[in-house]
């Protein structure tokens, strides 16, 4: 076996590879840029080698610098992780020339699957289901109708040189095909100067489902079930699960066998993923093959007990697969939520800064695989696994130079319902402060009716959150439980305050039983009856909740037992109450005496400042360029400036017609959130 491997990557995937290498007794080498000198993967590895400035194109994706690190450290093999150089055939060739093993597929497989046209032709030759279509010249509207009938409605009529939705029509019948052909042809000619048109099957109710394959260099290949990846935003996956709640065993088998056939057609060896689009009738069509380890590989590991990183290393060393298809068993259900450094309340814009608090939920090993330990036997009742793959730590910095993923939180349980509930609790217990993050949005998805039913498509986020994410409105039952919990917590805090030392003599402070709890626009008068084991909180209508907890005033995480269930609350202190975050909701909860509540109702509400004449920076980032000058008249929708953060360029545009009166920033400036970039008349 290899004695030393270099990981040509960073962040959580580098940490993930190091864990498996450590288990296998293999030494590891981390590479790092200036921005990552204090990163977690650097401290975890046995050795670390500096490769350059923060931008990836000056460090992590410069082949010569990685080769220099290999030579300097004597690494025998390289694991590329995902992204960066993981699917770069030139990198694989450079390693081969240097006699260093690439922990990934052969160069030929990378090249063949990296070209979309070549990969589709190879898929057709390997008898893999592809989207039916006609790529030749279409003579006229009658020819378009004939082709559409052969393919089967609905069809997508597309401009060959199209982009941005131009020259594209969906046709459901002959008349629409005839009209769509002519409209697309005219639009394509006007937009691109090229009126060539092609037609392909339009996939309705599309779901993104992928098959994990594993092949060795001795001709053996297996598939390890599927992953459902339909919940994505701007083609970026957010939630994944295995298995898919949509597939049946026959479809799973057909997809798996076709995926292995495609892999073997290009002499694939290593772990790889074949991605499919699946329609509402379970017809599936090849999309592409990713010749690397996928971000979402943990859910497959959790339901199969197979360590994919270990298998990649063993295959690269020349070993045969130690398992056959009959050995692959799918046990229970696993869900992965990607925790991103992006603010869901600001259109999911990237957020950078220091993690002033980072406390993931405790990992639990009750599933087939957690931290790469094999688990055998039938799933015991109530078994739950929690796994958090991460590359950050409390006090560490989220850099503007790399992608915004902080962690991948995974749960496993014997059933999908139990896995979802475990994920809800894990998200509630995940403490992240100092940056914007998408934990509230993930919690909202876990409680969404469509997700719970398993009926999501790739349009889920676009359809369910068309105006973006604006937080969660909790139902009455949940509000009452939180109100009761906060009343009990406030009483504990009040009692603690009565016991402060140094009080004046003869000044005893009585803690009352009657309180008014206000949250989410509701006010609940309650009465608290406390005893040694907890409190009973009774509402005006006579309903009551039994509250018990080990919470101590000042704790930022509270596990509250409410009746027969429990709540996990993130707790912050505000004047007269708490900031509570739970199940995607961010609540200001005020607990007052009846007289205080009466007076508070008379207080005027604070009006937000008018920022309509200011352009504020929506995220921490770098000013790439300014498109206007002082005195310019700008029109609605006109580009004003470009801000770069986390490999993304964001163009800020004018909301209305106005004149620029002042510019406070210049190209190259680093700006904080809400910093004023320019002012208008």
How are the SSEs placed, and which strands pair?
Layout: E1 4-7, H1 11-23, E2 27-33, H2 40-44, E3 47-52, H3 63-73, E4 77-79, H4 89-97, E5 101-102, H5 107-114, H6 116-125, E6 133-134, H7 141-151, E7 155-163, E8 166-171, H8 174-192, E9 197-201, E10 207-215, E11 221-233, E12 236-242, H9 249-265, E13 270-278, E14 284-290, H10 297-304, H11 308-316, E15 333-340, E16 342-343, E17 349-350, E18 353-354, E19 357-359, E20 369-370, E21 373-374, E22 385-390, E23 397-398, E24 405-413, H12 416-428, E25 431-433, H13 439-446, H14 449-453, H15 460-464, H16 476-498, E26 514-519, E27 522-531, E28 534-539, E29 544-549, E30 557-562, E31 565-574, E32 577-582, E33 585-592, H17 594-600, E34 614-616, E35 621-626, E36 633-634, E37 639-645, E38 648-653, E39 658-663, E40 670-671, E41 676-680
Parallel strand pairs: 1-2, 1-4, 2-3, 4-5
Antiparallel strand pairs: 6-9, 7-8, 7-9, 10-11, 10-13, 11-12, 12-15, 13-14, 15-24, 16-17, 18-23, 19-25, 20-21, 22-24, 26-27, 26-33, 27-28, 28-29, 29-30, 30-31, 31-32, 32-33, 34-41, 35-37, 35-40, 36-39, 37-38, 39-41
Helix pairs in contact: 4-5, 7-8, 12-13
What's a quick, concise take on this entry?
The protein has 681 residues and is of the alpha+beta class. Helix 7 packs across helix 8 and helix 12 runs antiparallel to helix 13.
């Amino acid at each position: 076996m290899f004695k030393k491997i270099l990981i040509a990557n960073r962040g959580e995937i580098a940490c993930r590879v190091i864990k498996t290498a450590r288990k296998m007794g293999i030494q590891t080498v981390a590479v790092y840029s200036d921005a990552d000198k204090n990163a977690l993967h650097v401290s975890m590895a046995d050795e670390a080698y500096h490769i350059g400035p923060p931008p990836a194109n000056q460090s992590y994706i410069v082949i010569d610098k990685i080769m220099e690190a290999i030579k300097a450290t004597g690494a025998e093999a390289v694991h590329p992780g995902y992204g960066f150089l993981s699917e770069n055939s030139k990198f694989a060739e450079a390693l081969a020339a240097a006699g260093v093993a690439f922990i990934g597929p052969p160069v030929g497989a990378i090249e063949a699957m990296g070209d979309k046209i070549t990969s589709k032709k190879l898929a057709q030759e390997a008898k893999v289901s592809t989207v039916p279509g006609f790529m030749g010249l279409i003579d006229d509207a009658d020819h378009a109708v004939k082709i559409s009938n052969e393919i089967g409605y609905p069809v997508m009529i597309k401009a060959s040189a199209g982009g941005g939705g131009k020259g594209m029509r969906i046709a459901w019948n002959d008349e629409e095909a005839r009209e769509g052909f002519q409209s697309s042809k005219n639009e394509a000619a006007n937009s691109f100067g090229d009126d060539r048109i092609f037609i392909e099957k339009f996939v309705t109710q599309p779901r993104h489902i992928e098959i994990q394959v594993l092949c060795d260099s001795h001709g053996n290949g297996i598939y390890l079930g599927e992953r459902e990846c339909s919940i994505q935003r701007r083609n970026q996956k957010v939630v994944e699960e295995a298995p898919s709640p949509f597939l049946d065993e026959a479809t799973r088998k057909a997809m798996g066998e076709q995926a292995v056939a495609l892999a073997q057609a290009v002499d694939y060896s290593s772990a790889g993923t074949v991605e499919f689009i699946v329609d509402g009738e379970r017809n599936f069509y090849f999309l592409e093959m990713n010749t690397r380890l996928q971000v979402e590989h943990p859910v497959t590991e959790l339901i199969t007990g197979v360590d994919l990183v270990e298998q990649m290393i063993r295959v690269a060393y020349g070993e045969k697969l130690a398992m056959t298809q009959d050995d692959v068993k799918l046990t229970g259900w696993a869900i992965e939520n990607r925790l991103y450094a992006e603010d869901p309340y600001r259109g999911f814009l990237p957020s950078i800064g220091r993690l002033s608090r980072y406390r993931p939920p405790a990992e639990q090993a009750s599933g087939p695989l957690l931290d790469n330990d094999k688990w055998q036997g039938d799933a015991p009742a109530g078994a739950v696994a929690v796994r958090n793959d991460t590359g950050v730590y409390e006090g560490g910095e989220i850099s503007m130079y790399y992608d915004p993923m902080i962690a991948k939180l995974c749960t496993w349980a014997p059933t999908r319902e139990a896995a979802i509930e475990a994920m809800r609790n894990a998200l509630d217990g995940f403490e992240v402060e100092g940056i914007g993050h998408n934990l509230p949005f993930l919690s909202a998805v876990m409680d969404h009716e469509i997700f719970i039913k398993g009926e999501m498509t790739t349009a889920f986020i676009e359809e369910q959150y068309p105006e973006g994410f604006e937080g969660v409105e909790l139902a009455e039952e949940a509000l009452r439980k939180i109100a009761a919990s906060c009343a009990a917590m406030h009483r504990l805090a009040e009692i603690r305050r009565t016991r402060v030392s140094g009080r004046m003599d003869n000044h005893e402070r009585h803690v009352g039983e009657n309180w008014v709890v206000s949250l989410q626009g509701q006010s609940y008068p309650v009465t608290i009856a406390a005893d040694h084991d907890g409190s009973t909180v009774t509402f005006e209508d006579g309903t009551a909740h039994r509250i018990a907890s080990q919470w101590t005033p000042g704790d930022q995480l509270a596990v509250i037992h409410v009746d027969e269930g429990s709540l996990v609350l993130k707790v912050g202190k505000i004047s007269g109450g708490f900031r509570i975050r739970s199940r995607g909701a961010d609540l200001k909860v005020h607990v007052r005496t009846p007289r205080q509540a009466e007076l508070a109702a008379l207080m005027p509400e604070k009006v937000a400042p008018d920022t309509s004449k200011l352009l504020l920076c929506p995220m921490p980032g770098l000013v790439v360029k300014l498109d206007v000058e002082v005195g310019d008249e700008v029109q609605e929708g006109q580009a004003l400036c470009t801000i770069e953060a986390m490999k993304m360029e964001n163009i800020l545009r004018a909301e209305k017609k106005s004149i620029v009166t002042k510019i406070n920033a210049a190209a190259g400036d680093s700006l904080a959130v809400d910093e004023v970039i320019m002012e208008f008349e």
